[in-house]
Structures are given as structure tokens and as C-alpha cells.
Design brief:
This protein has 388 residues and is α/β, with parallel strands linked by helices. Helix content is 26%, strand content 23%. The strands form four sheets. Strands 3, 5, 6, 9, 10, 17 and 18 form a seven-stranded mixed beta sheet that branches. Strands 13-12-11-14-15-16 form a six-stranded parallel beta sheet, sandwiched between helices. Strands 2-1-4 form a three-stranded antiparallel beta sheet, with helices on one face. Bound molecules: nicotinamide-adenine-dinucleotide and zinc ion (ZN) (2 copies). The site of nicotinamide-adenine-dinucleotide (NAD) has 33 residues, from helix 1, helix 3, helix 4, strand 12 and helix 8.
Length: 388
Amino acid sequence: MHALVFHKPHDVRFETVPDPKIQDPRDAIVRVTSTAICGSDLHIYNGLLPQPKSMVLGHEFMGIVEEVGSEVTNLKRGDRVVVPFPIACGRCFFCTHDLPVACESSNENYGPEGGLVRQKGAGLFGYTDLYGGYDGGQAEYARVPFADFGPRVVPEELTDEQALFLTDILPTGWAAIDWARPEGGESYAIFGCGPVGLMAMKSAWMRGASQVIGVDIQPYRLAMAERAGHASMVIDASKEDAIERIRALTEGRGVDVAVDAVGMEADESRLARLGHMLKAQAGNIKALELAVRAARRGGFVSVVGVYGTDYDRFPLGQIMDKGLQLKAAQAPVHVYIDELLEHIAHGRLVANDIITHELPLRGGPLGYDVFNQKRDDCVKVVLKPEWS
Ligand SMILES: NC(=O)c1ccc[n+]([C@@H]2O[C@H](COP(=O)([O-])OP(=O)(O)OC[C@H]3O[C@@H](n4cnc5c(N)ncnc54)[C@H](O)[C@@H]3O)[C@@H](O)[C@H]2O)c1
Ligand SMILES: [Zn+2]
Ligand SMILES: [Zn+2]
């Protein structure tokens, strides 16, 4: 089959690789009809998450069930499914406590310690050997472990584009808001107007937001956030002091909930990046610092942007003094996916309006480059294996 194979940073190729096969009675093989490139893929692409050997990328995918193992009784050949990005068994302590990203059974590097150079959580599709070394879904076919727990059947009337983001970015944006337990009327500052930030904005309105402030440094992304009504107000952090402005908009206090939807690849000079690398830090915590500053005293900071290592100057004193709550995690997709599928099916949530590029799978290397460089007004790239 054809797949997008990561070889080394900035070197992703469209290549022929062996077809995946059922390896366990709980596996399924899915023929991928749509797959997307995620900001998280860029961390591998840019070398911040190391991957020493070649690997098929991709953790956002959906398609048609081709074959199921003997223990998969809930799916059959021909079903159209969307697949959550964390690989979770559904039976261990964490899976039965609504923490599928902490599944104990899907990653040989698993352990209680946590962190890039220590032990990891659940396996993830196409997301380095650290996360289980599973081949991903930017391919014509994908092996889906624990297929009796993860994939969800998609109603016929929904297009792939409508359902695809249930794999990751919609539940991720939703988690960022849900973790703050909103009751309605909250103000939000969302740092990062990329796909994840936009999904957080949609989720905030669904949960009764009074104000949603979008912050980014890319004018075209701010324009999309504003044009589509995702944000009630946008701030270009490269042109003005975002924190001053946020405080001015919130009677000097700051927002009830600040979301970091940027992660460790916030803009920084090459020199600063080198300095961080010398200290064994992957990227920087600039966006997290902004989110902590933007939140009001007693407020909530949701960190869905990905961070890899430990970081110097983590603002613990500020968090303590302000009495903030902070939660950072990969999204528990399995927990939210059914509720979100309902919202999409009933038209209460629309996720596909952020797609700017649809390409054949063969165009994946270009898609990575354009998305990474934020060229051609790119917000979200969807790849179609059937078009290749
Ligand atoms: N927690 C999860 O489960 C989960 C799931 C998906 C993605 N993610 C992570 O979420 C983050 C965002 O993903 P994405 O797909 O939207 O990526 P993206 O790269 O498209 O978006 C990031 C945005 O941050 C902006 N940005 C950079 N520096 C900034 C700064 N100083 N201030 C404000 N904005 C700044 C960029 O211009 C860009 O628009 C990534 O770190 C990704 O790994 C996490
Ligand atoms: Zn993702
Ligand atoms: Zn489990």
C-alpha cells in the first residue's frame, strides 16, 4: 500500500510499504478514506519529538472496515468508522476510569513516571516509538488495535469531512473547555487560532461563553477566527501586548478560563531555540506563560498544546499566588466522542469549516510543508488516499 513515511525531520515521503495485517483478535484493518495532518505531527516533523527509524505517520483518520479479528463483534466489514487517536484497551484501571490516554495496555514504554525521556502513557497512532511505535493512518490502510473499544460507526448522512475531526481536534478543543467545568457566562482567552484553538472556541460557545478572545501571531488565522465568528475578539500577539488587552477587556481581572492551544512550538528566535535545546528542553513554554498571565485570580488554565520535556522557569509561584487551577493532558477522546458525534449529527456543531486544503495522499509531503510553514493561508490539511 501507499503511506506517508517519516524518515527524519522535514523528510516525509509518499512510499510503498507492506499492507498491515491483523495481529491480534481485537484488531481491525481500516481502509482509510480521509486523514488529516495535526499540529502534533509537526512536533515529529520538526524534530522536537525524536523518531529514530522510519514510521508511517498519522493519528487523525477514518475509513471503511476491511477486516476484523475474531473478538471484534461490534464492527463488521463495510462499516464506516472514525478512530480515536489514543490506543486504549477499554479494560484496564485507567480505561475504566475515563482515562484512555493513560491506558496501561497499549505501550511498551508505559509507566507511572511520565515525560519525554521517562515513561509514557497510552500508545498513539503514528506517533513515534515513545508512544508504542504504531504505524499511523496517513496511509491507504491502518491496523487498529482494540477495535472493539475505539472506533465509532459514522452515520451515513455525514460526510467524511464532517466526522473526521472527532478523531482528535474536536474532542481536544472540547476537553480544554470541559476541564474548567463551565456553568455558562465565562470569559475565555484562547492562545493559538490553529485547528485546536478553533475547536476550543466552538466548544466554549456551546458551553455558554460570554466572551471568547482569540490570540495568535498569524494574521490570516486571526482573520479566520474572527470571520467565522469563532472569536468575539482577536488579538495579534506579534503586534500588541495581548495580556494588557485581555485585562482591558475584562475589567482588569483577566479571563475566567485561558487555553493554551499552542504548545511547545510557540514562535521563538533560532538562538532561543538553540539555548533551549542545550538545556534539553523541547521548544518553549511561552504560550503557557501567556495563558497563566491571562487567567484571572482563581481562574482555570487548560493546556492542550503539547509539551515534551521539563522546562525551566515554569511559573509555579505565579500559579500559586493567583490560585489557579491548571490541567494539561492529551484529550480523552473516547470519553467525549459519542456526545460530540451527536452534536455534529444534529448540526449543533460544525467542525469541517476550518479545512483549507484537501489533497491526495500523494500530496502529503507538500501538505506537511505548507501546514508547517503556515503558507497559502493553511489551517487544516485533509488527505484522501483514494485520490492518489
Ligand atoms: N492535547 C491533545 O490531545 C492535543 C491534540 C491535538 C493537538 N494538540 C496540540 O495542540 C497544539 C495546537 O495544534 P494545532 O493543530 O492547532 O497546531 P498549529 O500549529 O496549526 O497551531 C498553533 C498556532 O499557535 C500559534 N502561535 C505560535 N506562537 C504563538 C504565540 N506566541 N502566541 C499565540 N499564538 C501562537 C501559531 O501561529 C498557530 O496558529 C499543538 O501543540 C498540538 O500538538 C494537542
Ligand atoms: Zn492530533
Ligand atoms: Zn486500557
